[in-house]
């Protein structure tokens, strides 16, 4: 059994990690940390898990994590993991970090969007954990920077197409929509029920920190500078993310070309489902799952491709992909502990 | 492996059965029937299950069910199962019926609330599948009448207390609230989004068919006639049921007496969670699970007990309890295929 | 024109007052106060009102209120109004207080549920502003204690019946359900979207401060001690309150007796709508309005009356009733500024 | 007083018309028709309006409409109005048609998206009722084709900019999101609560009939062929529409140029609110109102303009704009009966 710890276990992504790891056939949860709830049983914070997750939340202790864990998941606000992770890596622990701290191989780029980086060397070595794209590198990774939810939903449909140069990358527009759990569990006026209910709005328009993260990976995969327009919106629901992507085709590309390209890339990937012609994804179809469903359509008069992807922002967009990364780096099948039949409603 | 069929697989309760059985370690799904979608792949009706449930919906055929199934779940509107089930039972198949057709051992009582019964003999022999109360009878049952969702949520907290005569049964008031999925998947103005959203109402006030079902079981367990006041309400959400029960205590009963009584009854029941003093249940804590959480409080000036229970109406209130019944009658542990860690949100 | 001020204008009840008063044909808004947003334009806090409400929020100043207002609405947390209101009353201003501070004529009772009262004399003189019941006293009132939302929804159906002694008051059970806006605009984990969405729960079970407020008025009107069981619940929606009341009839009371009693009491009250037999209220029907809709049914086997009322908790349950109180005490028709055709959805 | 009739009064747009007209100071409602509910009082279909709208629904009768109405609003599915409207116009009645039947001046274009047109001459004469753009023509119009909800939300921000040639029109992408009431009141699986709740999806991707309607007006105003990519999505809420528009700037256009252009166009239009820099609209801010709020931002690295508009799809997107059209054509101030302070929540 793999001994796993979750640092920052009481946020929504942390608690989702606890849920998945708690049912994982090859994992035993050993340490849960929470600054706010240290000393309190986890199932008092999440009474849904009463009697199932019986650990008590602790303060963060490197020694305790090193002694008790093989793998550590850090689900903390950015700037905190960079102070903890180096010591864990130094002790040969595997770490999957869910913050932005280890997503950028270029510390300068990270620092231009966030704040100074305390561990620039590790930053360069960390592997970007977009499982279906970087599977080979993840296998041998020690430190994995788990992708952001928006980048996951945007990159999975785009990467195969930009790699094959099927799109004019300067025309890419990403209109993304997320459920409220993406904002985390911290108290905030913008997450209050009466402010969200029966409301739809854009936020951080062309100013979201996931924009440079998306650009970085597209630039890497397209092998030329890519800079997209990215606008996130907030949906009045708890979980789910739908991303609509627009781009002009690079030439006389047909529906079958797009399908062939995506199929070749994802044919062996159990978590990416390519929808048949005439079908489009719904966040409901992937809710509570690690799937990314992708549909597309060409709008011929404008030679424009419309790509639509859906994920559950807390699963494939956070905790699920983190566990998938652990599975890959620990030599397990990537679906282990992540497959269950989706709910009909 | 147990070969299982679901008759009426595309309604919400049927689809939830498909979900649970599809993940059940000792079951293989062999037949799914749907009048409306016969000939269509199940995962076209529920695209969430694409690639996971690959069976095609069929018309109902007794021969096909008999040939291919050990256990058959009938998830059909009442009055239809009574025409199908007798032939299945005659062929020694186990049947769990989710309609009201086999819940009443007294056909006359059934007929007073529904319509004439075509199979009065079977009606008398069927076992009422309230798992935690009738576990022993279920073990040897051939035909199980799966309880209604409201009766499940009302009876679990009440049965132990009326058995011990702790309540004045003539004072019992049951104020129940259900999510919309309880109304099923058929088109109906009362289930349209804009009619339900931001709306709360009572319906079938003191006139719901689950009222006599509740009375029947309480009468049996109290060993005297019990007739409760029952008012259901509709909550603007998909899943979940909370039932608030009021009853005057039969004498100088204390909080500890109530707790002791419930604990004695449910101490060994993995799906009934009794909450600590000062804690009250939330439908969210049992969503997507087979749990029934129970909290209570005595209101001393009025010597009145307030009992609150929550279930997921599609799981413990329908498909989950049906599978629990199958587990019991097939000699499996009752939690088999029904335990997974609940979602944090 | 009546010059009106709103103290505590940026909470939900305060903002709803601003909305109603802003459209009121005989009112001009002169002062809006907000500790948190002093110095900021009101329509920056509520952008929906951009260009319509152009006042800037101010700190509370008694002099300013006295100079600029004929009527002052105080929409503040309890314990604060008692420090401000006496000075306003001393200057012969009319005050409608939306907190609990002036609802209890018996300061000792107030102090048993809240905290010491700083203005016990005024407490005794204030009028309880349940408009349809105390209309005559409100006409000449200087200080009106605006009722709580739960008491409004419970008392309107009950008062006529207990006055006529049609109910066994010791059997009264009040099962109330409220939308989330009732909890106010302050940040709170229990008001976070992801904690409320797809969730239903009871809270402050038989321990809510509106319970003694209900008991006080029922005791007054029944002319004997009344003590009810009261359980509030939270509905996943922003606005609306439905209250289901159960009570045993005091004798051989018939449906027509109940109807006659309620009709006699409310026949001339434009804001109370008594539904026809077989119809039950829905919170949606009174949303954004000052109506209270009432339906009822007798459950004959148990000789129990079921009363159901709905209000919009922010209108009839707070700001609307406050303006209705102002209308009455200023000699206007009580519907002035409060009547508009309800929205279909 | 203007005598007004609503044909198709019980759909959501029809009922919203009834609401607005019922409160309109210069209108008296004389005729409401409904095929489904003929003979039934309107307030039985919409109990929210009990005691306020006391008319009974009727079958459609041209004679009755001609005798009793000065203005007729037709809120029917397309293809039906074209059979009724000609007779009303022949009798010199003013007609505002909310369907698509009279939006296209080119019958051939209409027929390419809908079906053969029975009244091609009237089609050519009708005025497209986008109030802020075609105010002068509307003043003298007899027949007004009320714009679709999506076109209203897309055209208001775009028209001034394409008229001034500030955008490369071939790059325009419109990503629109609508609440569920836009789908109307007819029973449909896609409008069932459990199918919509906690769900977000695109539909009719690049295939919606509002696409050619948008293209037609942009082509007219740009004075060159314009063909946009248009993708509508469904939001899990009842009312509200947010439209995000992307287009490359036609040259070195600055934020101030955009603002100046929009301000010049809408400076005198009470229902269009241009937001300050750094502010973006929220559907909640215009809910239940006739406002269209517009925000924008330039994404400099890509020289791309992001425009965001919000409307209430049933008000500015349907019934409100229809009444605004009536106001204009009847010589009233366009805000008459359409201005009330928006709700804070």
Rg result of chain A: 20 Å
In helices, the fraction of residues of chain A equals 25-40%
Count structural domains of chain A.
2
Q: Summarize the biggest pleated sheet of chain A.
A: 7 strands, mixed
Q: Give the CATH class of the largest domain in chain A.
A: Alpha Beta
The number of E-state strands of chain A comes to 13
Strand content of chain A: 15-25%
Task: Characterise this structure.
The structure is a homotetramer of 345-residue chains. Chain A is of the alpha/beta class and 345 residues long. Chain A folds into 2 domains: 124 residues, NAD(P)-binding Rossmann-like Domain (Rossmann fold, 3-Layer(aba) Sandwich), CATH 3.40.50.720; 163 residues, 2-Layer Sandwich (Dihydrodipicolinate Reductase, domain 2), CATH 3.30.360.10. In chain A, 33% of the residues lie in helices and 19% in strands. The first copy, chain A, has a 7-stranded mixed beta sheet. A 6-stranded parallel beta sheet of chain A has the order 2-1-3-4-6-5, with helices on both faces. In chain A, β12 and β13 form a beta hairpin. In chain A, α8 runs parallel beside α10. The radius of gyration of chain A is 20 Å and the shape is globular. At the A-B interface, α1 of A face α1 and α12 of B.
Please outline what is shown here.
4 copies of one chain form a homotetramer. The first copy, chain A, is α/β, with parallel strands linked by helices and 345 residues long.
């Amino acid at each position: 059994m793999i001994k796993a710890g979750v640092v920052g276990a009481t946020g929504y992504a942390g608690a989702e990690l606890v849920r998945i790891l708690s049912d994982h056939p090859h994992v035993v949860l050993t340490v849960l940390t929470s600054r706010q709830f240290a000393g309190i049983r986890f199932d008092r914070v999440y009474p849904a898990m009463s009697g199932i997750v019986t650990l008590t939340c602790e303060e963060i202790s490197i020694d305790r994590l090193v002694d008790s864990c093989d793998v550590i998941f850090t689900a903390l606000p950015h700037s905190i993991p960079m102070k903890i992770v180096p010591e864990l890596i130094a002790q040969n622990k595997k770490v999957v970090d869910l913050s932005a701290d280890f997503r950028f191989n270029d510390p300068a780029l990270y620092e231009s969007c966030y704040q100074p980086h305390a561990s620039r060397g590790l930053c360069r070595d960390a592997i970007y954990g977009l499982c279906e794209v970087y599977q080979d590198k993840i296998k041998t990774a020690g430190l994995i920077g788990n992708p952001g939810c928006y980048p996951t939903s945007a990159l999975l449909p785009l990467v195969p197409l930009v790699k094959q140069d099927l799109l004019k990358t300067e025309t890419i527009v990403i209109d993304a929509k997320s459920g409220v759990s993406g904002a985390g569990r911290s108290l905030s006026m913008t997450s209050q029920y009466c402010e969200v209910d029966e409301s739809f709005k854009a936020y951080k328009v062309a100013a979201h920190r996931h924009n440079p993260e998306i650009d970085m990976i597209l630039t890497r995969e397209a092998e030329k500078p890519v800079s997209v327009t990215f606008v996130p919106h907030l949906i009045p629901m708890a979980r789910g993310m739908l991303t609509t992507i627009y781009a002009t085709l690079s030439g006389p590309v047909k529906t079958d070309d797009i399908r062939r390209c995506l199929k070749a890339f994802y044919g062996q990937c159990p978590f990416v489902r390519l929808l048949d012609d005439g079908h489009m994804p719904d966040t409901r179809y992937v809710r509570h799952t690690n799937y990314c469903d992708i549909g597309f359509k060409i709008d011929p008069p404008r030679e424009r491709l419309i790509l639509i992807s859906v994920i559950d922002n807390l699963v494939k967009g956070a905790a699920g992909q983190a566990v998938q990364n652990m599975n890959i780096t620990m030599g397990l099948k990537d679906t282990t502990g992540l497959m269950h039949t989706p709910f009909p409603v």
